Amino acid sequence: MATTSMTMAKALNEGLRRAMEDNPKVVLMGEDIGKLGGVFRITDGLQKDFGQDRVVDTPLAESAIVGTAVGLAIRGYRPVCEMQFDGFVFPAFDQIVSQVAKLRKRSDGVYDMAMVIRLPFQGGIGAIEHHSESPEAYFAHTPGLRVVSCSTPNDAYWMIQQAIESNDPIIFCEPKSRYWEKGEVDLEGPSHGLCDAVVRREGSDVTVVGYGSSVKTMLRAAEAAQGEGLSLEVIDLRGVSPVDYPTIVASVEKTGRLITVQEAPRSASVSSEIVAEVTQRCFYSMRAPGLRVAGYHVPYPPARIEEDYRPSVDRILDAVDQVMEYEQ
Amino acid sequence: MIDEELVQLLTPEGERVDHPDYNSTLSGEQILSMYRDMVIVRRLCNESTSLQRQGQLALWAPVEGQEGAQIGAGRALAPMDFTFPSYREHGIAWCRGVPPAELLKLFRAVSNGGWDPLKYRHHLPTIVLGNQVLNAVGYAMGIQRDGADEAVLTFFGDGASSQGDVLESFVWASSFNAPVVFFCQNNQFGISTPSSTQSKVPLFRRARGFGFPGVRVDGNDMLACYEVTRAALDNARAGGGPTMIEAYTYRMGAHTTSDDPTRYRVDAEVEVWKHRDPIERIKALLVREYRTKPAVFDAVAAEADEFALRLRADVLAMGRPDPLSMFDDVYADEHPLIEEGRREMAALGLGGSH
Q1: Residues A82 and A219 grouped into a single domain
Q2: What residue in B sits closest to A98 (Cα-Cα)?
Q3: Parent domain of A79
Q4: Which of A16, A142, B151, B200 is most open to solvent, judged by the fewest CB atoms within 10 Å of its CB?
Q5: Spatial strand order in the sheet of A198-201
Q6: Catalytic site positions of B
């Protein structure tokens, strides 16, 4: 297997490049994505190689980035929109939920809303307000959209290409705190489908499910738990909507315990939905209620105290202790 | 209403007037044909209002009074142009060839769309104010990338002119020199809110600030609406960029059948606008200039009546959709929640039309 080591940022860049080479209808749109290469440099060098018509430095208006992408999609293009930061997606929220999500249905399948909205999300980079949010639940709640998140460079490389190939609109959540971490990328072919959940570490005592930046935290927690004689099975969700329940259910049937991990506030969240659904499907296999390790019900805090807000190894291990206690 | 910046080629009395920039190029035959369009669209509108009052439509958005603006603009389109309407562009749908019964599917609440937008090159109605204007600009950017000899015509009203999406559309169209024409029907009211609340300057003047021309046209003058729109579309196709057209008109009826305009406007104003009726002035021109005989007008009226009967029959024949159809076309690819919902509903025995 020929693999190459690269950062997630580079993997996304290479994935976008390959998608653009494969299909001339792929057009990138966003703020500062051309000459600058994006504030995170995800599109670095692409405008130079593909020109200003395919890598469009747009005026600064998020609703217009998505709203014009809708028109391009109707015309048969496959736009890839960059929202510069999670907290800036809300001006585009109307276009996303009112048009992007509904137009295939309203046109009886005539329109392909084949577009990707890239969203650097989650915190952990010490940024100021509006730069560290996790808005995925809003989109997961909206019929017509799919929501995915990558956690490794290999997934970043393949999932961005799969998202662009999809004829459904994809909200593509990129854990910005992992952009600069390196990993092996297999350039031969993707290992999984776009929305498939993947077992990152096998275990027998507790199933721990999360996505994006939380995956690495979960793996570190599993490592620490092993020292205490506990075996955690870590599942990288990848597909946030729809969720790949068969993979999670198979794991919980085995472990009897479920913990979900996310940075977004806990209430009415992706985690809430997973716990409810898995409880319904695995009720007689469960030895403890599903627990959610999540952000608190507060606006994302100032970065000096963000690590007290984000799910940590310790908070995951506390939850592990709690679900294990139900055994007695 | 008459101001020197208003483009008018035909007075309310049906007399031609000269304009330095625009000349009417329509033949008598074309004018008669467009007269017929206006009469049929008005008949469609009135029949639809009746259907709503009889409980056969969930809602109707009357277009009466705006037929001149819409048939003028609609007949100025080239076949390959693409249109992005709001929800009152029944005259544009007619010009694009959308079957009238399909136009009414939305209002009968049997569909959230109604027709094949790619077949008729007419986008589906957009009810969230202004969304379609950005979509139109994006489509125009696609035309540019394809190097196609096409343009986009998009519609909104004086109310929607306050929406961020419309103003962002102006920025984008200007920055990218997109082949799009913004057709704003200023019908004086956004439900009850007067256009003076939306803008302290005449709407067409906003365009200048965004870097492209704005034109105010007498929206009840079909000849002027045709020429102004045709010139703007030609200019867009030739690479000249966007134009904003403000068609100054009046909504003779209610905002929708749920509205009561007597609460916010006075009869005297409505009376003034009755004398500016777009259909009557074309009829006056046809009589005056082309000696069109009463029998011709009678034939058009009879055709409109027959049209209304067919429309009514088509609407009444539209049954309740199969509830299971709500799961179709939500996604392109398989989706577990769609499959689950479909199974759940089928198990309840709710499938099938009734």
Answers
A1: no
A2: B128
A3: 3-186
A4: B200
A5: A198-201, A232-236, A206-210, A258-265, A291-295
A6: 251, 255, 264
Of B113, B139, B145, the CB nearest to A107: B113
DSSP conformation class of A97: I
Contact (CB, 8 A) for B332 and A145: no
Based on the fold, state whether residues A26 and A127 are members of the same structural domain.
Answer: yes
* CATH architecture for residues B6-319: 3-Layer(aba) Sandwich (3.40)
Tally the domains of chain A.
2
In-domain check, residue A170: yes
CA distance A121 to chain B (A): 24
**Min distance A257 CA to chain B CA atoms (Å):** 24
A160 and A281, same structural domain?
no
pTM: 0.97
B141 touches chain A (CB under 8 A): yes
Same domain, A152 and A90: yes
* Residue of A204, A192, A117 lying closest to A155 (CA atoms): A192
pLDDT band at B3 (very low <50, low <70, confident <90, very high): low
| Residues in A touching B169 (Cβ below 8 Å) | 64, 67
Question: Domain check: are A268 and A239 in the same one?
Answer: yes
- Shared domain for A175 and A299, answered yes or no, is no
Residue B63 contacts A where some CB pair is shorter than 8 Å: no
Query: What distance in Å separates the CA atoms of residue B255 and residue B194, rounded to the nearest whole number?
Result: 12
Residue A192 lies in a domain: no
Output the tens digit of pLDDT for each of chain A's 328 residues: 689 999 999 999 999 999 999 999 999 999 999 999 999 999 999 999 999 999 999 999 999 999 999 999 999 999 999 999 999 999 999 999 999 999 999 999 999 999 999 999 999 999 999 999 999 999 999 999 999 999 999 999 999 999 999 999 999 999 999 999 999 999 999 999 999 999 999 999 999 999 999 999 999 999 999 999 999 999 999 999 999 999 999 999 999 999 999 999 999 999 999 999 999 999 999 999 999 999 999 999 999 999 999 999 999 999 999 999 996 5
**Does the beta carbon of B328 lie under 8 angstroms from any beta carbon of chain A?**
yes
- The residue ranges of every structural domain in chain B are 6-319, 320-354
Examine the residue annotation and report whether A297 is marked as an active-site residue of this protein: no
The helix-helix angle for B67-75 and B28-53 (nearest 10°) equals: 130
Q: How far is B278 from chain A (nearest CA, A)?
A: 33
Chain B neighbors of A146, CB-CB under 8 A: 331, 335
Q: Cβ of B129 under 8 Å from any chain A Cβ?
A: no
**Chain A residues with CB-CB distance to B171 below 8 A:** 59, 61, 64
Longest CA–CA span in chain B (Å) reads 70
Interior/surface letters A35-59, b for 16+ CB within 10 angstroms, e for the rest? eebbbbbbbbebbeebeeebbbbbe
